[in-house]
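Note to self: user wants both folds in one dump. Writing first protein now.
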Amino acid sequence: MDNCVLEMRDITKTFPGVVALDHVSLKVKSGEVHAIVGENGAGKSTLMKILNGVYEANEGEILLDGAVIELNGVTDAQRKGISIIFQEFNLINTLSIAENIFLGRFNGRNKVNWKELREKAKEILETLNFPLDVDRIVSKLSTAEKQMVEIAKALSLNAKLIVMDEPTSSLTKSEVEILFRIISQLKEEGITIIYISHKLEEVFQICDTVTVLRDGKVIDVNPVAKMTRNSIIEQMVGRTIDAEFPKRDTVPGEAVLELEDVSQGDFLKGISFQLRKGEILGFAGLVGAGRTELAEVIFGAVKADSGSITVNGKQAVIRSTTDGIRNSIGLLTEDRKETGLVLDFSVVNNITITKLNEVTKGGLLNKKMERKVASKYVDDLSIKTPSLAQDVINLSGGNQQKVVLAKWLFSDVDILILDEPTRGIDVGAKQDIYHLMNELVASGKSMIMISSELPEVLGMSDRILVMHNGTIKGELSGREMTSENVMQLAVD
């Protein structure tokens, strides 16, 4: 390949009990947007961490502009023109935009010229047509603005290759459009982008080439124009996916949860609705509509200011998460890493944590019983982990999500609230979760599903409630459930 800026040859990486990468080779042309797709656990993140100098490969070599290079850490990779923007931003919230852009380049010996530093930061942001006050503190920025700071930081390092890992996972539609404009601009300037995303529509929209990984191996490399959505999915998961949203025949029964005139601060205003037995009730709306705040009130993470909550026909007092669990309510939070898991706990500990009394004998934890319980859910949910003792921080995003689900399945709650249940996970893991949702409601459980993925809400819900500015703007069911009707209610 004549204009190959990056080549990774026969990269192999093993961890205890796991072959993460098995002789993976990758070629990326100069000035292209090259997508890397695959299920969670396929090896995408491991490959990028090797490219970033975080991990060292057991075998293989890396060539940059045709020359073999060695990478001795992140700083060395940046020095060679490689920058990676991860999902979790590498910014210091208490510092300004300018300070973050040039972070790590103060040697402590020379006096910092703050005026020059601010001017340079301003120039970089202006080249991106994204004028921000460079003195603003990063903690005050939106997710999209933080991402622009990360891109500016990469440009300040004269990056010739920028890796973007799930860059749109927390962005609104308008923010995504701004990001795509900047990617096009970078491409025109000859900067190469490696783009990792589970959103295949984005791959078709902005990428030139796609490499598909599965189980640590390269399955295919093709120009995006020669691929279809279905062909990529089949290569990713190794099987045909007949229907993206599996159908079910469950008929919802009596009301199991009822809210009447519930308000909380400025976030919720007079919320009233019913959830029925065996129903998936979808909640749609734009960012800031109040959906997550509503989930937190129902579960007890936040106390309502007024109104009533009825569970199975009886008025419930829900002032804490303990009250929520006592009323057989569970919440899969939108941020699994912050509020859904204890990251440095094992798989087994995370699964049993909400119902330890079920795995104790004589007041002592019965580890054999605990492992038996966890093993059942690992098998049932196809959680990929080298062992039950593995810390969940080391699992892929999709498998972390399955561990959170396993926790609530073990808790055996009757009402399960799923807040962004498939955010940041691949199409194969999504299918597993959709099938599990159907099985649960078929067994008599009830679900509230909050999702920013409109096709997901439309495809999985029995009814949809649309929120706007802390209120429920309308209810849709049957043939009324269209994207046009949802958006009309969401933006009014």
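First done. Writing the second protein, which came from a different request thread.
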Amino acid sequence: MYSNETWRVAVEPPVRKVLKRLPKDDHIRIIDAIQSLITDPYAGDLQKLGGTDNSWRRRIGSFRIFFEISQSERRVDIFKIERRGSKTY
């Protein structure tokens, strides 16, 4: 469905701050998931967020990666990472 071209992934500064505070094992799993967005942002346990045109949520264990996809620019903007809780969705 999609070409073999890569996508550009941008991580917002607050997300980088969250990543620095995570335990090593969780940090590695999330970084691996972010790197996989470069080849195919539509892979994995993905769900489109309601009320938006291009915002998505990807589940990585007990964490959620929230991002927007710009199809025309082939760009993925990660704007939030949260540990799943009763208020995460």
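Dump finished. Worth passing along: The first helix runs from residue 13 to 21.
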